[in-house]
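subagent[fold] <- orchestrator: predict structure for attached chain, return tokens only, no commentary.
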Amino acid sequence: MKKYFLFIIIFLNSNLDGISQTQTVNLQPSYTNQSFFSLENGEILNTFNADWDLAFSTSTMSSSIRINGGMGTELYSYPLGDTTDWNTFNSSNISNWQPIHNSDTNWFIGAFDKNSTSMFDMGWGIYNMVTHFVTGDSLYAIKTVNGNWKKLWIEKLANGEYSFKYADLDGSNEVNAVVNQSSFAGKNFAYYSLDQNTSLDREPLTQDWDITFSKYITPVQGMAYGVTGVLMNDGIKACLVENLPDPNSYTDYTQHILHSEMNTIGYDWKSFDMSSFSYVLDPYRCYFLKDYNDKIWRIIFTSFEGSSTGIIEFNTEEVSSSTSNEFFNSSFSSFELYPNPSNNNDVTVIYDTKSNNIEISIIDINGKLVFNHSSLNSGFSAKNISTSNLDKGIYIVKINSNGDYLQKKLIID
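subagent[fold] -> orchestrator:
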């Protein structure tokens, strides 16, 4: 009898994969919470999302700082001077300043990283190639998530510590603060509340979650707009499949290309119907997602109740495990850069493609195109590119073929 029950347990456990699971996430009314979710293990953390203003990258390769834009934090670059004007900060014309927003495609391009003017300009400060410190050269006005206005100076990132200070716009209630990256090791960001004058540990370990449900800012018809949707963790990839007669039976993920942009799933799997005054979901789409363990999952959204409850329902199913094929049935079967990092005068782009219409581009951290090459060769190819005229720093190498594209980070040091 014991052997019989043991067999049943083993059988059930072995067949959990491939079975559609109904999932529910509750962001609470008005979407006040944020949910971190693992396709393998379900919801990892559901936490209040309106208690922080700044998010500092913990990566030693990043100086990115994001804001809590989705919940109301607003950031404005001070247009009347630099850090020497801290004591004479003039906010009388603040209503005419232009807000700065986070990227919704890359976690490590935050609002503070915008307005860069050169390769070593990190937005809020200048990177020193000798010391590897970033020294702040900009002042900001910031409206906290609770609606309070502050002036802010990110002074330095040195030896893993962000040093910054902030005060009321008139200079009163000045606070000097430090956030140490190592205190939040293994996580994407360290958070800080300007109203509470404290750092916050509010996200799971990076390796423990795949997607997060929250409010965020995205461009909609050319304007910054707050939406509620799904953002992927750094390193997670996914794709959208549309116009399916029956998404629940569709498992042919190999016909589609995975993308790494954090908003690949995004918010537009739902729309608001003015006639019924409720949200409707596209019944003919699904998403495929590859997690950190190279498992492929299918996601189908089934219900979105809106701000009255914040409840979202969706189905998940593992459709394949232990695959390392990120290219699926795209135009590419391989794409590599060598050497990377590069400290020589060139880099070689190695790729294998079925197409004979290839475009290779190199883009700097400011989004400027610094190299472009077209090729009519299909099959296995290697393109040697001179980098002697490029400054040291981080670039994106993008290879495109008939609308299919892949990209990799290139470091020149």
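orchestrator: received. Logging for downstream: The longest strand covers residues 149-158. Confidence is low (pLDDT under 50) at residues 1-16.
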